[in-house]
Amino acid sequence: MRILIPYKVKMMIKSLMFLMFGASLYLWAQPSYAWWMWTPGDTVDNSSQSSLSKGYKPIQPIPFSHVAHADKRQINCEFCHSAARRSTSAGIPPLNTCMGCHRFVRTDKDAIKLITQKTEKNEPMEWIKVNDLPDFVRFSHMPHVSKGVTCQTCHGDVQKMEVVEQFAPMQMGWCLDCHRTEQKKSHKTTLTACQTCHF
Amino acid sequence: MSDMHDDLDFQRSSLGEPGNDRSIPELNNSFQVSSNPKELKESDKALPTVQEKSMDMTEHSQRLAFTGGKEVFAPSEGPFEAPATQKISGSLYMEAEEIEPALAENESDLDTIGGKKNSLEDSFLKADIGRRDFLRLFGTGAAASVGAAACVRRPAETAIPFVNQPLDTVPGRPVHYASTCGECSAACGVHVKTREGRAVKIEGNSFSALSGGALCALGQGSIQALYHPERRSDPMEKSGSGFAKTTWDDAFKKIAGEISVGKKVAIFTGPSTGNRHTFFKEFLTKIGASENNLYTYDANPLLASLAAAYKMAFGRSAIARPDLRKAQTIIGIGSDFLDVGYSPVYFHKGYGISQNVTQMGTKGEHIHFESYLTLTGAKASERHVIAPGTELAVTLMLIEELLNSENVKGKESDREIARKLISKYKNNAPDAQDIESLRPAIKKTAERALRTSATAIMCGSTGNFDHNGFQLQLAAIVANCLVGSFDNVLELANGWFTPPVVPGDLARFINDAPNYDVVFFVDTNPFFTVPQKTGFHEAAAKLKTIVSIQAFPNETDLAATITLPGHHYLEAWGDESPVAGYWSFRQPAVRPTSGSRQAEDMLMWIAAHVSAPMGFENYQAYLKDKWQAVYKLLEDKKITYDIFVTLALRKGVFGKPDRVANSDMIDFVDSFNYTKAARGLILAAPFDVRLRDGRGAHIPILQEAGDSLTTVAWDTYIALNPGFAKNLGLRRNDHIKISAASGAEAVQSGLYPLPGLHPNVVVIPRGNGKAKGISKITDDLGVDPLVLVGGEIEPQTGMPITAGNVIKISQVGGKFVLAAMQKHNDLANRKDIVKTVTLEEVKQNASKQVELDKVPDLYPALVQGAYRWGMSIDLAKCTGCSACMVACSIENNIPQIGREQVIKGREMHWIRLDRYFEGPIDNPQVYFQPMMCQHCNHAPCEAVCPVYATTHDPEGINAMTYNRCVGTRYCANACPYKVRRFNWFTHAWNTMGERPMDRNPRALNPDVTVRTRGVMEKCNFCYQRIRAAKHEVEYLNQGEGGLKDGQIQTACQQTCPADAITFGDLSKDQSWVARNRKDSRAYLALGGDPEHKEYGLKTLPNVSYLAKVVNEKLKGSEPEHH
Q1: Are B750 and B733 a contacting pair, CB within 8 Å?
Q2: Interface residue of A16, A38, A163 to substitute, partner B, most B CBs within 10 Å
Q3: DSSP secondary structure letter of residue B528
Q4: Full set of structural domains in chain B with CATH
Q5: Mind listing the pLDDT tens digit for each residue in B691-745?
Q6: A43 vs B contacts (CB less than 8 Å)
């Protein structure tokens, strides 16, 4: 007995089977595929846009609170991240910047005890990077800060974050959103050139 | 919460790259060399420990996470396995010069060239699946991944800030330290660029009167020696046939014990012009030995022979400083002052100015006489080939012709000495008959030398120091007197060169050695650079204790009883006074990268152990005390001494040249002895331009840069006159043996028929053939021609005679494939690769401007940004020194790939040095052409890229986006200039020490992406430098016109000692590069002949060349008009 299946349904089943076949092949080939995708020297986020990057919120060695510093006590971002205006990287403050105040302030807290101990031992703090670009992207803070882009534009309201998290997807499309608009405004032809960020 | 902690643990265990620029641990910036050995050790250890830890974790986790424990990448043996000496056996190859049969025909033969299969490719196959399977799987995987979540997780990276950030450090911005290069006695001032405490690049210090901001290949490459994984960090003591680790304290105690027995101590050291030798003398007197127990030696025979000759002729310890800038005529007789000489960068700078072609069509003259081709001879406007060993005869004939001329210059007393000298050899000059045919040329040279107001005669090289090597320098002094060169071009009364060695010391040491118990060998390698037969090795073998203090392990270490790792010059304190009265300071630019220590500090500790302390905390304190003498030169004493020292170290150089009254020449004719030159096939063993006497052999970047004339990398070639080789039935790459005329010593290597050689000369460069067990790089690499050299020592200079040895050639059979990067020698009748013009034409076209960009085409106009970057290269200036190649490799993180891969044509240089021969094969015209990406406005590579990985920047740069590249290599095939390089392998940058060539990640330039396998790469005009300069202008708010012409220097331009490269903005009419592009000599490579409406490939490069200026156009280079 012949079962009549509408053409549309038949095509749906067919395409579903094709997809399932593809998926099983994929799973089988996954180790090799992973090997292909990974190359030393790269730290490419191969995940889709939002799964790992946006909202990424690693636990840091000490529960440093930007709320306490930047919001409640209104300490300027560049007081600690002083390299942002004149360098590629914004710079994470050295321990002696912390110790400038915390030699006297809140010395009873565990975290402060830890950084005091580290400073005495001449041991650096190992922070986990939150906003991490792949190595083939040559981002520089300097031109952005000199052009008056606020820290919050890319990093979000860090002063409201108890634990710092990634605010923007930090993918190329997101960068280009601004770069395209700015290029139209300023007629700076290089703003969307590949070599501006990749070399 | 606990989940998150697990998460964190995982991420921590998979830490990211240690080489990442923003995560460098740095504990403090103290450069103080502590006097307490224990303390020093502790602080030294801190930095490497942190690095090693994170590296282990990276590797481990990456491998586990992605390869299931299998080694896929970075195998322990890469393409760098030691270049082997095996050869393919087979019949005699015909036409080997034109084609490379191994490359063209038989792939399987090629694999066995090095005796081993290429292990990197092996490892590729060792992976779970074959390549085709894997490509297929990749295809299906990619199709299926549409809806699936990705499987690779981003590894977390750490950011490690300073504990105490030094005041002058901003993370991400370089800090430069002024220092002095320590690779040779020239002592060029350098700027060391450091990032977060790591030295990443060495550049010339523009304040330095000697380097003028430039640097040679060896100086550029020495940064790789600093981070070399094979540097030792512990003292070693001989035990049995090997060495065992010992502690610093034990080593010092043992040496002190040996010393206090009989105080029979000596120090044998390399060249120095500063306070180093003074310190050694003070040390010797302090511990109760004589200060005469200090012996200085440099393998370069020019230093000792010049010092001895000037001592004899003028009674002074001085070497005249040839200020070639002033010279209108330069006469070279067997000279290699641009190759090695005794201050190559300084000579290059002066030579560039002297031989500059002005728009009015004037240019200095350079007439050269030599027996084998050197870079110096290749640059000469007129070159004569002479028989080996007749350099002195030519010089004497020149003196004779100068005396015959009525315009002869110089004092009467000098002329009298010259006449006496000539009359002594007029009738019985041994080689006069041989060179009689040269008399017209020499007569003409003498006339030209006297016609111009400033002439310099340069004699002698590292390759022709024979029995007459010392007399040649004396004759050169006489000749220079007769052309009025002294105090005109050769500065002897005003800022002369300080002799860095004392002549006669080597011979003296061989005599004195039995008297000593303990000898310190400090930063010198006589066990390699002194020929075996001189008796040096036997004399040294009888010493009870040999203490070897070396920055890098060498043959002297192997012969030593105790080896102490010394500092690389970038870690050390020091000073040099290369020109009398002029000081160049050396300060540490990095904290010690291994467990090494400053040599002088070790001696201080040893002195303290024998209860004779030197009275200073460390060598830094000693120097600070000595620099009081330099402070006295300061006329205006408004600043205190401490501030003076700070400022002097910041600037790097200080002083003003000493002056003395002119002195008359002393009559030395009675002690002038001419020895007849040997006849037959003569060996010439010059220093390799990059490796010198072997001091650069362990630096992979220098090995890979290749010899400029033969383009042979990673090997020692044996060069013969092509006609002579043809008569013997030999062809290129034939495996031949060169043996001493008497004796069994022989060396074997591949033959390179090099045009421009006298038929009686065989050239085997020195530098390679080092002892086994020193470095993985030099093991089995090349041969050392010194084994063919007799053991004679020249009495006046105490230097071993390394030239004039008669040798025999025999064929071994089969091939020894030399890793030559350029397989062809001539221009193949292409008229638009290298163009030549005569001075007459330059004069005629003085007012003419060319419009290289006016080419009829149908393409739409290009988008034009605020700038249009362009480069101009003056072929009249380029000398082929290859400093640009090395500088580019260091700046742009270019990997070295080893001999095997160079033979396959896979070298990665972004800028290469093409050289072409034209004209008669015995004395050809040599053209050097630096070739890099031409940044074509109509680039063939851009049109063929299927993924837009290479695009045209609105500022004229042909941009390469590595992360877009999928490795089709279409662009490399499309490129007519063959400048695109493909990464066949991921080079293990992050594994320090696994393979010797693996670059320590700390040496990488953090501003440039490290490329991986499957990616195309090429020159990008050092875009990181362009962008940094633009950002600086924006930061300082200087506006559009803020970027000054010359503010951006590419790495190749910055280091070019001949100033051949100009870079800048072509859209500004008055920029140097735009003016050069309009010069009448300007042309585009493969750009046809625009004057006759032929536009070649019409690629419209932004790189233009300035035609080489020749005396006479060769027939082959006449443009053909259709």
Answers
A1: yes
A2: A38
A3: H
A4: 2-128 (no CATH), 236-296+501-579+582-655 (3.40.50.740), 308-491 (3.40.228.10), 682-820 (2.40.40.20), 836-854+863-932+1022-1115 (3.30.70.20)
A5: 999 999 999 899 999 999 999 998 899 999 999 999 999 988 999 999 998 878 8
A6: 16-17, 20, 154-155, 157
| Alpha-helical regions (H) of B113-270 | 119-126, 131-144, 217-226, 248-262
Instruction: Please identify every stretch of chain B with a pLDDT value under 70, giving residue numbers as ranges.
Output: 1-155, 427-429, 988-1000, 1040-1041, 1114-1122
Residue A46 touches chain B, beta carbons under 8 Å: yes
Q: Is residue A120 part of a domain?
A: no
Shortest Cα–Cα distance, A189 to chain B (Å): 5
Domain count, chain A: 1
Q: Which residues of A57-67 are buried (b: 16+ CB within 10 A; e: fewer)?
A: ebbbbbebebe
- Residue-level pLDDT at B929: 95
Give the chain B residue whose CA is nearest to the CA of A24.
B144
Within an 8 Å CB–CB cutoff, is residue A65 touching chain B? Answer: no
Task: Pinpoint the alpha helices (H) of chain A.
Answer: 7-28, 30-37, 66, 77-80, 95-102, 110-121, 141-146, 151-155, 172-186
Which pLDDT score, from 0 to 100, does residue A111 have?
A: 92
What pLDDT shows up at residue B1012? 84
Best of B935, B1027, B1102 to disrupt the A interface (most A CBs within 10 Å) is B1027
Distance from CA of A4 to the nearest CA of B (A): 30
Residues recorded for chain B:
1122
What is the pLDDT confidence band of residue A54, given thresholds at 50, 70 and 90? confident
* The one-letter amino acid at B225: A
Q: What is the pLDDT of residue B633?
A: 84
Q: Is residue A173 part of a domain?
A: yes
Min Cα distance A179 → chain B (Å) is 15
B1009 phi and psi, to 5 degrees? -60, 140
Backbone angles phi, psi at B644, to 5 degrees: -60, -45
Q: Enumerate residues 93 to 152 of chain A having a beta carbon within 8 A of any beta carbon in chain B.
A: 93-97, 118-119, 122-129, 132, 134-136, 138, 140, 142-143, 146-147
Best mutation target among A80, A103, A195, A197 (most B Cβ atoms within 10 Å) is A195
Question: Does A107 map to a domain?
Answer: no
Residues B868-905 as b or e (16 or more Cβ within 10 Å = b): bbbbbbbbbbbbbbbbbbbbbbbbbbbbbbbbbbbbbe
Instruction: Judge whether A86 lies within some domain.
Output: yes
Residues spanned by the domain of A143: 66-92+127-196
B43 in A contact zone (CB under 8 Å): no
pLDDT score recorded for residue B1121:
45
